[in-house]
Amino acid sequence: MTTGRSMRAGEAVLGGGLFALGGLIAVETMLTPSVGRAVVGPALFPYLISGGLVLVGLSLLREAFAGAVAHAEGLELDLWAVALVAAGLAVQFLLLDTLGWIPSTTILFAAVSRAFGGRRLMVNLAIGLALAAFTFVAFNYGLGLNLPEGSIVERLTSPDAE
Amino acid sequence: MDTLAALGHGFLVALTPYNLLWSAIGVTVGTAVGVLPGIGPALTVALLLPVTYGLEPTSAFIMFAGIYYGAMYGGSTTSILLNAPGESGSIVTAIDGHAMARQGRGAQALATAAIGSFIAGTIATAALTFVAPLMVKMALLFGPAEYFALMVLALTTVTAVLGSSLARGLASLFLGLALGLVGIDMQTGQARLAFGVPELLDGIDTVVVAVGLFAVGETLYVASRHRFETEEIYALKGSKWMSREDWARSWKPWLRGTLLGFPIGTLPAGGSEIPTFLSYLVEKRLAKKPEEFGKGAIEAVAGPEAANNASAAGVLAPLLSLGLPTSATAAIMLAAFQQYGLQPGPTLFDNNPELVWGMIASLYIGNVLLLVLNLPLVGFWVKLLLIPRPWLYAGILVFSSLGAYTLNNNVIDLVILWVIGLAGFGMRVLNVPVAPCVVGLILGPLAEQQFRRALAISQGDPSVFLTHPISAVLLIIAALLVIGPMVLRYRSNGAGKGGSASPSGTHPAT
Fold first, then answer.
1. ipTM of the predicted structure?
2. Alpha-carbon distance B349 to A157, whole Å?
3. CB-based contact B315:B265 (threshold 8 Å)
4. What is the pTM of this model?
5. B418 and A CB contact within 8 Å
6. Chain A neighbours among B 205-234 (CB < 8 Å)?
7. Which of A108, B258, B346, B495 is least buried, going by the fewest C-beta atoms within 10 A?
8. How would residue B499 be classed by pLDDT, with cut points 50, 70 and 90?
C-alpha cells in the first residue's frame, strides 16, 4: 500500500540517488590518477555525466517537493511479493556456484511462483525442477554453454580434482 | 544493380537449408516469446541471445532477424487479446484492437494486424534493401565529428520522444550514461568506476541492463500489482476471416502506415512511438466514421500495426549502415553484433557482405514464414496467453538469469542483474521510462569515443563540431529538440494553472 505522500518520498529518493551518484562519479574520477596523453583524457566524460546527474537529481527533488510526481493519488503495491521475488533471485546467485544451476534455479522458480500467488509449493518445485533440468541439458549439451553443475556435485563426482 | 546482385547473393546464403532452418526457428521462437505478456521485442531478443551462441555469425544473425520480426508480430496478439502492449509501439494497437476483441472481433483484429504487418514488413524490407547502401555511401563521408553529432542527436531525440516528463527521461538517460562509464577506457586503458572489482573492468553488459530493466524490473512491478489488477482474455469466436468490408477498410491504412513507419524508423529519432501514433491520427482524420475510433475501428489497428512493422525495418537501416541504434531493441541487436566482435557500419558491408545481405534476405523470408505462422496458427499462439501467471513469470526470471549468467559465465552478472532489476522496479513505480537508459548505455561510450577521436584529429580544436557543416546542422537540430519543448512547457505553465501535468497513465516497459 503506497500513498501519494510516499510516492513523493520515492521521487525524492530517486532525485537524491541520482544526485549522490553524480557526486560519487565526480569524486571517484578525481581520485583516479590520470594516465595517457590524449588531447581529451578519460576524465572529461565522467565529469560531464556527473554534472548531468547532479542537475537531473536536483530537478527531480524540486518536482518531488512541488508535488509533480507520478501517481500522486497513490499506488497500491504488494511489497511482500516484491521482497519474495528479490529474495528468490538473491538465493539463486548466492547458491549458484556451490549448489549448481538446477537446485538454485528450482528455488528461484518456486519463490517467484509463490509471489504470484501459486500456493501449491510441491507442484511449483516440481515444475521448477523440470524447467531447470531441461535448460541445463539443452544449453550444456545442446548448445555447448556452461551452466554450473555446482562445486558440491563436482567434488562428489570427481573427489581427486581438489 | 549492385544492390540487386548483393541481395541475390544474400538470398543464396539465406536459402541454404541450414540457414532456412535457423530463420524458421527464429520466427517461431520470436513469435512464441513475443506473445507472452509483458515481453516486448527488445526483451525477446535479449532473452534469446544465449540460444545463438553456438552458431556461426551469419546463421546467428539470420536467426536474430527472424526473432526480431517474430517478436513484432507476437506483440500485437498480446495487445489485442490482453490489452497488455509489450512495447510502446503496440500501445496504439491495443486501444482499438482490444475494443474489437471485446466485441468478439478479435480474429479480424489479429488478421488485419498480421496481413498489415506482412505487407508493411515486405515493402519496408525492400526499402531497407535500397536505403541501407545509400546510407553506407553517406556514412563514408562521415568523420568522427559527424558521428558524434549524430549520436548527440539520437540521444536527445530518444529522450525527448519517450518521456512523459523531460526530467524523468533525462534521469533514465543519465543513469544509462553512468553505467556506460564503468570499465576500461578504450583510448587509454585506464579503469573507470570499477571499484577494484575485476569483473567490472569489462564494463556492464547492455544485455544484463536490458534484461534487468525489462524482465526483472517488470516482473517485480507486476508481482507488486497483480493482486490489485485483473486481466481478462477475450476468446476468439465467430468468423475467423476478414469480411469484404474489413479488407476495404484495411488496405489503405496498411499502405499509409508503411509510408509513415519506414522513413521515421530510419531517422536518428527512430523508434515506433511516433509513426504508430501519427498513423492513428491520420486514419482518424481520414475515416468515414471517426466516432468509431477508440471503440474498435479496424483502421486504427491496420494503420498503426503496419507503421510499427515498417519502422522496425527502418530502424535496421541506421543500425546496419551507421552502427547507430535508435531504439532499445536496436541497442540490443548492436550488443549482439559486438558479442561476435562485429561492428555495424560501412565496413560491415565491405567485410561481411554474406552476413549483412544474408540477414536482409532472411527478413523477406521471415516475413513470409510469419504470415504462414500467424494466420492459420493464431489459435495456437493464443493458448500461450493461458499459461498461469505464477509459472509464466517464474519462467521469465529463469530465462533472464540464464541469459545474464551465460554472457560471461559469471555470478557477478547475476548480482548486477539483481541490482538493476530493483532499480528498474523503482523506475517503473515512479513512471521513469527505461528505454532511454538502455540507449544511453550503448550510445554513451560510442559518442565519447567519436568525440575524443574528432578532437585528437583536430589536435584539440573543439570548433571541428561546428565548422564541419553536417556536424553543425545535426547539433543545431539536437539543440532545438531540447530547447523547443522546454520553451513550450514554460509558456504553457505560465499561461495555465502552474500546471504540473503529472503522467498517471501506465506506460509499458519498452
1. 0.92
2. 49
3. yes
4. 0.88
5. yes
6. 216, 219-220, 222-228
7. B495
8. very low
